[in-house]
Structure formats: structure tokens, C-alpha cells
Design brief:
Elements: H1 3-21, H2 25-44
Helix pairs in contact: 1-2
Length: 52
């Protein structure tokens, strides 16, 4: 399992936990999923540098 995938899964679980505490499980999971993909994108270095 790749580290980027672990990052996405952990964000989904954290989002689900926060969603359960506020009685909105599914929106919490979706927010966690989106945050996980954003963090994976930022930390993986897949971005292209437009300055060079």
C-alpha cells in the first residue's frame, strides 16, 4: 500500500469520526476524502513548477 493511499484512508476515517460526533457521517466522510486527496496532491510532488 502506498503512503499516499494511507493518507487518504486516514483522512476519511478522521472525517467519519468527526461526522459521527456531529450526527452527519456521510458528509464527514466526503470532506475527509476531499481533504485526503488534496493532502496527497500537495505532499506527493505531482505538481508541475511553472517557474522553470
Amino acid at each position: 500500500m502506498k503512503t499516499g493511499d494511507v493518507l487518504i484512508y486516514s483522512c476519511v476515517i478522521i472525517g467519519a469520526g468527526i461526522g459521527l460526533t456531529m450526527d452527519y457521517l456521510f458528509p464527514g466522510v466526503l470532506i475527509g476524502l476531499g481533504a485526503g486527496y488534496l493532502l496527497k496532491y500537495v505532499w506527493s510532488g505531482e505538481r508541475k513548477n511553472k517557474d522553470t
